[in-house]
Amino acid sequence: MMRQHTRNLTRAISFQAREAIKPKLYIKSGALKQVRHLDLSADGRNLVMTLSDDSLRIWDLSQGREVVRYAVDGAPPQAARVSQDGRDVLLRNADGEASLLRLWPEQANMAAVTAAPQAHALAQRWRVTAMGFGRGGAALILADQSGGVSVWSRDGLKRVTQDAGEGAAAVALAVAPDGQRFAVARDDGSVEIWSLDGGLNIQSVAQWTLSEAPKFLALDETQAVALTESGHMALMRPGGEAKWRYQVIPSAPAAMSALGGEALAVLDSERVLYRVSLDGGAQKIDKTPIERATGVAMSPNGGRILLAGGKGHVAALDALTGERLVSIHSTKTGWAALDGQGRFDGVEAALQDVSWDADGTVLELDRFSKGYFEPGLAAKWLWTGTARKSTLITQPEKAPEAGIYLPPVVKLEVDAEDEIAAGAPIELRIVAQIQGGEPGEAQTPRLFHNGKRVADSLLQAEGEEVHEGLRTWRWRAAIAAAPGRNALRAVVAGWQDLLGQSDERIIDASSGGAPANFYIAGVGINEYQGPELALNFSVADAQAFTEAYLKHTKGGGQVQSVRTLFLDQQADRSHITEQLAKFRLTTKPTDTVMVFLSGHGKVVGGEWYFLPYEATSLRNDYEITKVGVSASTLGAHLVAIPAQQVVLIIDACQSGAVVDHFNHAAQQRRMLRGLSQDTGVHVLAATRADQLAPEFGDLGHGLFTYTLLFGLKQDKKGGQHADRWPRDGRIMVSELKNFTGYYVPRLAKALERKYRNEGRARGVDLATSAPVTPTGASYGKDFPLF
User: Fold this and answer.
1) Which residue among 165, 193, 724, 727 sits deepest, i.e. has the most Cβ atoms within 10 Å of its Cβ?
2) Residues 413 and 540 in one domain
């Protein structure tokens, strides 16, 4: 008999649970730290935050993701400035010591790419009180306690120019967006504008002495704007006198942004936010969403205000209405973004830190994936520097805060001893009670065995019952116990595909049986049936990765490691699907299966397709749906494979215009992340644009595969490069995902810089316009690959 019964399940759910609940955003205790300071680059692309744990977080808003995090050694940073190209950050601590942190590698090789960012001290006689970047980041401008100004060369880290101060300490420094002028304000009320030429020489352009010393300063190509402790604003144009706008805000300013068009964002000492226009008008933003706000920035066009505060996140507001558009969160474990409609983006670990609290029921963001997951969310709201015409993929009916119905209550009843023999049947029942909304027919539950989904064919519906207005659905299944630990979990979708999940049940089975085997199927297509689809690296990628995989899996006690390779004409639809079907017959639960696909991929009608050899064009959507191997087809085959340790690696190319590439990559990421969540199969994927980057042939591989291969190589300490989190002599799936996710973008930027310096630039910056950003979706159980 079943050990547990469901007769009390209905009684345990109150009538309130059947009503719509308005949840509140919930952040796990300790998951976020206070943002002390933020700075936005002149072009609005790069955002740097200093947090109360003395770390730095750098976001690339053109990609909508956190790209670098850095723990500061020594005295905590008091202020930070980020260069326009995102390469470097200037730091100043409470002792007035300045340093340059190089975020991105100077050389285009993996040794440099995988090295930790380095901070370089800038020795000064006087305490540095203000700083900034000029000439596109080539110049480091420091103003000090004596009122002096010095300019350093970024490349040589040498002081090029110095102007001695006259005793009045510098209190603020601002750089014009073009980087060719900067202004310094001192505590005696003086304000001076300097020009900065290509040789990093400076020359005074204009000077004023104000009746009250500025506290903050902003500058564009035509004027300087100063804000005083009393809330007065002075406008200064070279050749003219200062023009005052009195009491533009009612209390002392606490933070001020750079100029965004003809306006500034100002946070006062009461933490009230204002949009201040240069004619002196100030608009109070009443919808300030962050308590204990600490910093403010404004987009270059003046359309967005970024507000940082006490809970470790930055909110982006519409500068005219104050409406919250999107908030970005940097947590201990990663990053997440969330907009006003409940759409979200982020890495899996961080999405466990950010949740909705529905009257005490905590619902992680991941449970809302089908209706609300939006790859590239922050970029779509914040990046205004390109005409990529990004569109939001998901269109929720309403935000979760407007009211949700709780997901089904799911129970997993197991009729088995806590320890049984391997191969013995585990009989179980899934019970799901719908709590509200219009559920219609119950969706087939997803049953996961050791992290991988069990085939739906093993589930048998037992029917539905209705009691006191609540629907209860039941299913029965019998699965064979795998040797060792058997972890069982059930998931059922309810209202708006919101996921309810059971507690995990653990059944131990005796070990023994045949040793585990390793299988890998590699697919690489350079020469398609349609000549326009020809690629450069796919065959080499498939050959090299499958060989490396075999090399590292041999000799570990496995009976065999088996490779199957399909290249060019062999890689047609029938060969690919037949090989996947063979895995159903040849594998057992303890085996590991890896599938590597390198070629073209495209999203058509809400489905992602891998293009086999037969494809002739990326423009013929009908053909793609007929000959392509869809994510759904891949998922069905991979779920049916008995092996419980399955990894799918996809290095897919998208040809065409760069403006379309961002959305294609976002759609692919959404589709493949959903595949992983539905099946429990680990998915590592990246899109690339080979035709846009022929020079990357220097590597002999695509960026993604090149980085994968490097991760498997031996480092100077005798271990493997990807063995980092922790370093324990083996590479877990999660480690390989983290390794590629962090280092592929770094290598792309290093190569772009190399080609520009060598005069091989193509007018297209692949690293930012068409980022090769891997997708790592790991909803299955983590396990060692090597």
Assistant:
1) 193
2) no
